[in-house]
Amino acid sequence: MQISVIGCSYLGAVTSSCLAALGHDVVGVDINERIVAELSAGRAPFFEPGLQEILSEQGSTGRLRYTTDPSAVAGSAVHFVCVGTPQRAGENAADLRQVDSAVEGLLPHLRPGDVVVGKSTVPVGTAARLAARIAEVEPEATLVWNPEFLREGFAVEDTLHPDRIVYGVPDGPAGERARAILDEVYAAPLSDGTPLVVTDYPTAELVKVAANSFLATKISFINAMAELCEVAGGDVTALADAIGHDDRIGRKFLNAGLGFGGGCLPKDIRAFMARAGELGADEALTFLREVDTINLRRRDRVVEMARQILGGAVADRRIAVLGAAFKPNSDDVRDSPALDVAARLDQHGADVRVTDPHAIPNARAIHPHLTYVTSVDEAVDGSDLVLLVTEWREYATLDPAALAQKVRGAAIIDARNVLDPVAWRGAGWTYRGLGRP
Ligand code: UDX
């Protein structure tokens, strides 16, 4: 099938290359020349495990190409909209300008029977509005809302082998036809037994934000329990294991620590609250305000812990910050709790040395004044305190005895609860986890 993908940054780069891997002829269109140049050369424009391989593989089949020319979508029967919906500056609501302009750019090229597939995360009601706009120009084209659930770090895997596929389609024969076309697009995962939920536009839009809100709530729930453990002397990791054995609860997403960040969860729950307010259902999502607050409070807690360990003030003390990305296996620093903590300590006058295996260039672009180093050794050299803030495997497996030789003060805050307190204390470290005695 001939498919166009509009927007080739994170979501679009992964979607386009995976659609080619599913056997389709794909053209990716983006206004960003750098991204198009990188993708055209078969190079991943950001760090994502497996993306590089799939791009070079699919690029060489001739089934995958990238361009800045918006008219390249002409000739495709299916058009995926994969642009970003960031948080509006100074507001909680989503900024839909990229989605609107992607659809406007498509309109002159649409032909009867074409299917437009919305993948971006949007406020509920957007699909109906876009469908009406499409109908003004090409009444025989159909919009399907098909949210994406991929996780950074596992994006290729999640796209090729999704947990579920959701289509929001209009009622009637046009919807039936569009559904059949998408069944063809996703023939491979569907034949592997991937569950399919076919529903209306608002439900499909809500599935995405509901899923992200649930995940965010789960994380803030366990972080609230961590706060309780901290005052009562309990261990939140044992608590999470114990409640996680109840399969109605489940152990996944119960890792207490520095909380959630990234380009999705924080902005999605805020945009969801803003949209609920517009719809007069503000009260239904008041709890998400608390989820957001608990999440941000974890960052205060780590800064406060650093101050306590260093005898009341962090000014002029050297602090090694291990991690800048919002999570491991990603170079993404959008709303990164790790980088936020580093920046706050720097503001309080600490001599902060930040390291990360992949995210330093992105971190530098946001916080150019911080000191970045390329290895753990350089970060910890002569440090008074070590902070593990992103649980990269190489940080979670550090040898406490060897590291103790390099620091000035053997104190560590394990803000992701991935180290063994017994081993670290045994090697002479002052060890502090979050929600752990
Ligand atoms: C998320 C959703 O998981 C994905 O389905 C959706 O499509 C996009 O948003 P992503 O932002 O890539 O994906 O990361 P995710 O793995 O969900 O982690 C989000 C944040 O939560 C990270 O900062 C992570 O460190 C944090 N987290 C996750 C915890 O603090 N504790 C946990 O137990 C799990």
Describe the model:
It is built from 18 helices and 14 strands. It is 44% helix and 13% strand. The protein has two domains: 197 residues, NAD(P)-binding Rossmann-like Domain (Rossmann fold, 3-Layer(aba) Sandwich); 238 residues, Rossmann fold. The strands form three sheets. It has a six-stranded parallel sheet with strand order 3-2-1-4-5-6, with helices on both faces. The protein has a six-stranded parallel sheet with strand order 11-10-9-12-13-14. Strands 7-8 form a two-stranded parallel ribbon. Bound molecules: uridine-5'-diphosphate-xylopyranose. Uridine-5'-diphosphate-xylopyranose binds next to α9.
List the helices and strands and how they pair.
Blueprint: E1 2-6, H1 10-21, E2 25-29, H2 33-40, H3 51-61, E3 64-67, E4 78-81, H4 97-106, E5 115-118, H5 126-137, E6 142-145, H6 155-160, E7 165-168, H7 173-185, H8 187-191, E8 196-199, H9 201-232, H10 236-244, H11 265-278, H12 286-309, E9 318-322, H13 337-347, E10 351-355, H14 360-366, E11 371-372, H15 376-380, E12 385-388, H16 393-396, H17 400-404, E13 411-414, H18 421-426, E14 430-433
Parallel strand pairs: 1-2, 1-4, 2-3, 4-5, 5-6, 7-8, 9-10, 9-12, 10-11, 12-13, 13-14
The chain binds uridine-5'-diphosphate-xylopyranose (UDX).
